[in-house]
Amino acid sequence: MPDDLPTPTPGPGGDDPEPPAPDDHDHGTLGRLVHPAEPTVERVASVVEAALDRAATRWAERPGARVRRLRRHAREPLRQLYEGHPEARRANPRERGTRSIPTDEICGSAVGGADQRGADFLPLKPFRSANWAARWQRIRAAVDRLVVLPPIDVYRYGDGYWVLDGHNRVAAALYAGQVEIDANVTELVPPDGIAAEPSAPIASSIIGSLSVRAAGEGLPPGAPEEDGEGRPEGDEAPSAPPP
């Protein structure tokens, strides 16, 4: 046997040679190659999961699916604030000013006639008058042309918002897939509760009030809102069904 070849070391059994012990340098190199891969795999998995979630959301929110979902909701009655939360009648209103609020946090109605509307905020079919249908078409056309409509009026109570005026505008925003809608917000604070947010500056509260906006437009107090086309939009209770 040549002198320059290493002599195998007999193993514990005496026959098979033991494999050479790993060199420290080789172990460190292998560690540098293997261990950094673990967080990389986790990051890739996280990115893939987020991408799948976004794809699922886009698929669920594609226009056709969104409309079908809303039409299914339309068969359910619109929630009414004081029916679900009778204690809200004793709450103290606090003006919070005008802001954009998430459409998915609008829970229902704070006025009478909620039982005549579906959960998509539109009147139930027996309560859809010709006047309402014409007004609805104007609102939809304004939304399609990206016309800025007046803010809706809502109460904030608990974790959601309840519509005082603007049910049709909320419906149009939902069917159009809007994420947010402009609103004049009034928070209802329970007598023994704590306000969820500080009061808004008095100027923004006044500017956002229905009466002052109507007066500034030369309309009498309580006049219906404009729909962006110069015509009243009004959100009065749906008409009674024909006899």
What's this entry about, in short?
With 243 residues, the chain is an alpha/beta fold. It has helices at 24-34, 37-60, 63-73, 81-84, 130-144, 167-176, 202-207, 210-216; strands spanning 92-102, 106-109, 152-157, 160-165, 180-189.
Write the layout of secondary structure elements.
Elements: H1 24-34, H2 37-60, H3 63-73, H4 81-84, E1 92-102, E2 106-109, H5 130-144, E3 152-157, E4 160-165, H6 167-176, E5 180-189, H7 202-207, H8 210-216
Parallel strand pairs: 2-4, 3-5
Antiparallel strand pairs: 1-5, 3-4
Helix pairs in contact: 5-6
Global Rg:
32 Å
Largest sheet: spatial strand order: 1-5-3-4-2
Unreliable stretches: 202-234, 239-243
Helix vs. strand class: alpha/beta
Order of helices and strands: HHHHEEHEEHEHH
- Helix count, DSSP H or I runs of 4 or more residues: 8
Number of domains: 2
Question: How much of the sequence is in beta strands?
Answer: 15-25%
* Fourth-tier CATH superfamily name of the largest domain: Conserved hypothetical protein from pyrococcus furiosus pfu- 392566-001, ParB domain
| Largest sheet properties | 5 strands, mixed
Q: Give the total of beta strands.
A: 5
Mean pLDDT reading:
74
What share of the residues lie within helices? Answer: 25-40%
